[in-house]
Amino acid sequence: MAVRVIPSTCTECLVQCGSLVHVDGDKVIKIAGNPAHPGSQGAFCIKGANGPVANRDSPRRITHPLRRTGERGAGQWERISWDEAFEGIAAGLAPIIREHGGEAIAGASATFTQSRGTAVRLLLRSLGSPNYMINQDMCHGGRATSAILTGFGGNPGNELRKSRVILVVGKSPSESDVVEWMYIKHACASGAKLIVIDPRRTQVSKLADHWLTPRAGTDAALALAMIHVILSEGLQDEAFVSEWCSGTEALRERAAQYAPAVAAAITGIAAADIEAAARLFATTKPGSMILGHGIDAQENGVHTAMAFHCLLALTGNIDREGSNRAAKTMPGYRGNYAYFINNADFRMSEEAEAKTIGGRQYPLWSGRDTYSQSCHNPSVLDAIETGLPYPVRAMYVSGTNIACTYPDMARTVSALKKLDLLVVASDQMTPTAEYADYFLPKTTLLEEEEVLLGQSEPCLSLSQQILPAMGEARTDLAIAIGLRDGLAKLGLVAHDVIPWRSNREFMEYALSGTSVTLDALRVSGFHALSYGYGDYLQAGFKTPSRKFEFNPQRIAGSGGDALPDYKPPVYAPVGDGFDLTLMTGIRSMAFHHSRYREHAWARKIKNAPELSIHPDAAARLRLGRDDWVWVRTRESDRPALLKLRISEEVPPHVVATGVGWWYPEMRGPDHGAALFSVGSAMRYGPAFDPISGSPSQSRNTGCRIERADPGEVERLLGEKQADIA
Ligand SMILES: Nc1nc2c(c(=O)[nH]1)N[C@H]1C(S)=C(S)[C@@H](COP(=O)(O)OP(=O)(O)OC[C@H]3O[C@@H](n4cnc5c(=O)[nH]c(N)nc54)[C@H](O)[C@@H]3O)O[C@H]1N2
Ligand SMILES: Nc1nc2c(c(=O)[nH]1)N[C@H]1C(S)=C(S)[C@@H](COP(=O)(O)OP(=O)(O)OC[C@H]3O[C@@H](n4cnc5c(=O)[nH]c(N)nc54)[C@H](O)[C@@H]3O)O[C@H]1N2
Ligand code: SF4
Ligand SMILES: [Mo]
């Protein structure tokens, strides 16, 4: 049979590259990048090439619903039908809703840029719960919240090609975003200047004209010093600032506290280098800025992002050609999470939404008109344990492996075990799913149809269903519909906001206000959009003043410090032995967080949870190449066991690792994560960012390391039941 080539979109990660799926009969034989896709232009990665087929065919794949028969975590399950699952779950939720209200159910998912987040959110709202747990407090939440409060963050997207200066802060796109990486390389090859701020030597830092290496967690001081240089030397874009910005004098005064010499003492970067970078960024046009994970998810995350967003506005690099582009919507498109959470037809009453856990402490995170309108996750874990501010007795977890990816696995698992009911939807048994009462089998990428509108991408994309769902697996939306129906039979659906009968209907609804059809998208895989610049010229910025606010009124209104400021990271070395900075979450091409650990292709690239250490630090601690080490933090009495990788990529006072390691082949409900996942040795705050509630010490913290006894390591690793196929 002839090989068919189907244009589609990879959704293995949020980059959403256009793909070409090669199909021979009923087999996918190759997946590659689609050069015609307007966003990704052929860029692709090893995860996208291998992940979808390996996920579908994984020997660990579970394709029918399961109900727990033994103790939680004992691995004893019985196979049941979908009807039995929906009825059993409804029967389990009924007494909880009757006694405590719908808000006693929390739901967790990983992302809301795909329909999974919308499905979980609308299910919760239908059942009367505002408690949606999205891991954005650990991810992008600080940057997104700053963008909403100041009025602009944006992303350059493919404007990077036209940028003449690019500032990359705390981001390693060569691993985390191959499309951005491609455009940065193009821009540099055509003479663009590049400034990189990262304590670690990354691929992008190797291309930089200025590579600034701050001490971890000190970026706000650096950005404020750059602002000071620009304002004191009059290098700002005065026309833009005077017409479109508010709070300039207040910002000037705040930044004056961070003269380059002051910032140099805080960050460890020479004052002259700070000045040179500031001048280059302010005087080269157009410029763009990419802010990454390295400055987010910490107790000063929102202020740090605000400082950089102020720098962007001061230089006028706002929604212009070659600068950061405003997040664009397509007129009439109704598929994005933001559309659903903000549209009155899909909302709960104001009174019901006001019950969101965290809403009182973090109104700019968990209140209405905020970025994700989600609850404060660590406070939900507390509520499960303490019943305060009210009981949370059930959880629906879809598409996230929180036992591995929330810090402090022991605490997460302890909370999960205390629930009356835990339902997990996944494609395989994860350390989180092991504690479930019901396991619901999920379709994988090649079995799903999904329309996507990337925020800074110039097109609408389709991820095509290439193969029939395996076994009884269902899409996230189909599962949400089944769960809703189960409760509706018992009269327990407070306010139904899922009007579709299938995933297909949902996709048709998303497109129904546009002139684009699913049929047309199936032919091309995408629909190119033409985006203009300068959206603010018509309606101003989406702030109370309609200007870009250097000192956002909404922060002042909630009693916080409205100007960006620096705060020393709580983990700064204090000479108590925890003096190495532990960086976590460093991305690897082989994995998406905790995913692909069971795939042979990925384990060939990385077969152990590695901890990078500088050769001088290794020598000082008498550690050698093949050593494993116990990593301990101040906040936890549980160490993690990681394998050393000696490399000059990290400075001598830093050690760096990934996130969420587990050995799927290892025995026990945690599959080794309790030992080998670095989050097991960390804490889920406090401190918390006063604006976003993001936890300190969840990305970076202080640690000490000591050599593990090789015999013990061998014994612990030897518990692997079998090697990866
Ligand atoms: N291959 C792969 N790609 C992914 C993912 C994946 O798991 N695997 N995950 C996706 C997701 S959900 C996300 S959120 C993104 C994240 O992607 P990025 O935002 O690119 O984050 P990282 O790649 O973790 O890079 C963070 C960088 O910040 C640096 N850093 C650490 N601490 C500091 C600091 O205090 N200051 C500064 N200036 N830098 C610091 C680190 O050295 C690191 O180079 O990646 C996405 N892409
Ligand atoms: N210490 C530390 N912790 C971190 C970070 C860090 O830097 N340091 N980074 C944080 C960041 S940025 C993020 S985004 C989080 C990520 O945390 P998670 O969201 O937990 O990330 P994944 O490991 O990708 O887990 C996705 C899970 O969803 C399942 N799945 C995959 N596709 C689907 C689907 O279509 N539907 C459903 N229902 N399930 C699916 C997979 O089997 C997998 O178990 O981790 C955070 N945790
Ligand atoms: S970067 Fe890789 S995994 Fe992410 S969408 Fe692109 S091809 Fe897929
Ligand atoms: Mo993330």
Structural write-up:
The protein has 725 residues and is α/β, with parallel strands linked by helices. The chain contains 28 helices and 25 strands. The strands form six sheets. It has a seven-stranded mixed β-sheet with strand order 5-4-15-14-13-6-7, covered by helices on one side. Strands 20-24-21-23-22-25 form a six-stranded mixed β-barrel. Helix 4 (141-150) crosses helix 13, helix 8 (219-232) packs across helix 10 and helix 17 crosses helix 19 (409-418). Mean pLDDT is 96; it is low at 721-725. It binds ligand MGD (2 copies), iron/sulfur cluster and molybdenum atom (MO). Iron/sulfur cluster (SF4) is lined by residues 10, 12-13, 15-17, 44-45, 47-48, 178.
Question: In summary, what is this structure?
Answer:
It is built from 28 helices and 25 strands. It is of the alpha/beta class and about 725 residues long.
Tag the structure with descriptive keywords:
disordered C terminus, binds iron/sulfur cluster, single chain, six-stranded mixed beta barrel, binds molybdenum atom, binds ligand MGD, 28 helices, seven-stranded mixed β-sheet, 725 residues, 25 strands, alpha/beta
Major sheet, described briefly? 7 strands, mixed
By DSSP, the count of extended strands is: 25
> Tally the helices: what do you get?
28
Give the cofactors and ligands.
ligand MGD, iron/sulfur cluster, molybdenum atom
**Shape category:** globular
Percent of residues in helices = 25-40%
The stretches of 5 or more residues where confidence is low (pLDDT under 50) are 721-725
What is the end-to-end distance?
29 Å
Overall pLDDT score: 96
Which strand order do you get reading across the main beta sheet? 5-4-15-14-13-6-7
What structural class do helix, strand and pairing data support? alpha/beta
Oligomer: single chain
From the alpha carbons, calculate the radius of gyration and give it in angstroms: 25 Å
Bin the strand percentage. Answer: 15-25%
